[in-house]
Write a structure and sequence with these properties.
single chain; alpha/beta; Rossmann fold; 4-stranded antiparallel β-sheet; 10 strands; globular; binds adenosine-5'-diphosphate; binds magnesium ion
Length: 259
């Protein structure tokens, strides 16, 4: 089925010196899913995101997106193809407003970016207006519109993590990769993040999600793949993965899977 080839990671290996961060790792993600990628610290999850986004060339293997290899596509081309991501560590411009932060993310869709458009005279600013409108839509989609003119540095941590997602959405992705969206987010804000991600998915964006908060993962994801030491140790529905002894074993000494 064509949808099964939405995202396909085939035998990918990444080495950092003597360390195998990913070893012949393969997995398929279907279009429309919220797919969880879990595993203990150092398992290779962020490395896989970097490979899919084009920040890292694997030493072996290939990534297919929507039926074709994206191996030779540089990072910006993958954004155009519909792959967007957030980073494990918060990356926002604290001295820009919330709206401006999202406008920065829109630049990939336009010939001239946010930074050059603000330096242009008023009659050349139609593009900036368009960017502003798209950014505002993304803030509405992530329920941050009431904060549009607040400096990003004044947001709560949970809101700032949502702002990063709004900025990633500015590129109109088909696949959104979220690296630990609720790490460090206070419990009271976690439910809101879950609703935002569900809403994005319901609007047609497939989501690949790395997260250590197992309650969050189990509630949100349709399918899960589990990495440990760069290798796939389990995959399937949340129920299957939760009951897999190999997963419980990998998490011994970490937080319990049912936490
Ligand atoms: N740029 C790098 N240089 C050297 N080692 C790295 C680099 N990035 C990641 N690693 C190592 O690769 C392994 C996988 O890292 P990472 O993908 O960040 O794990 P995870 O996101 O699952 O916690 C770890 O042992 C990490 O220390
Ligand atoms: Mg990581």
């Amino acid at each position: 089925m064509a949808s099964e080839r939405f995202l396909s990671v085939s035998d990918v290996s990444v080495r950092f010196g003597g360390l195998a961060a990913l070893s012949s790792f393969s997995f398929d993600m279907r279009e429309g899913a919220i797919h969880g990628l879990i595993g203990p610290n150092g398992a290779g999850k962020s490395t896989l995101f970097n490979v899919i986004a084009g920040l890292l060339q694997p030493s072996a293997g290939e990534v297919f997106f929507r039926g074709r290899s994206i191996q030779r596509d540089p990072r910006h081309r993958r954004v155009h193809l519909g792959i967007a991501r957030t980073f494990q560590n918060l990356q926002i411009f604290r001295d820009l407003t919330v709206l401006e932060n999202v406008m920065v993310g829109c630049h990939s869709r336009f010939r001239c970016g946010f930074w050059s458009s603000i330096a242009r005279p008023p009659h050349q600013r139609r593009e900036e207006q368009q960017i502003r409108e798209i950014a505002m839509q993304k803030l509405e989609q992530t329920r941050l519109q009431s904060m549009a003119h607040v400096l990003a540095g004044n947001l709560s941590f949970g809101q700032a993590k949502i702002l990063e997602i709004a900025r990633a959405l500015a590129a109109d992705p088909k696949l959104l990769m979220l690296d630990e969206p609720v790490a460090g987010v206070p419990h009271a804000e976690v439910g809101h993040m879950m609703d935002v991600i569900k809403g994005i998915n319901a609007a047609g964006v497939s989501v690949l999600l790395v997260e250590h908060n197992m309650n969050f993962v189990m509630k949100l994801c349709d399918d899960i793949v589990v990495l440990n030491y760069g290798r796939k140790i389990s995959e399937g529905s949340t129920g299957q993965v939760k009951a897999d002894p190999a997963v419980l074993q990998a998490y011994l000494g970490e937080e319990p899977v049912d936490a």
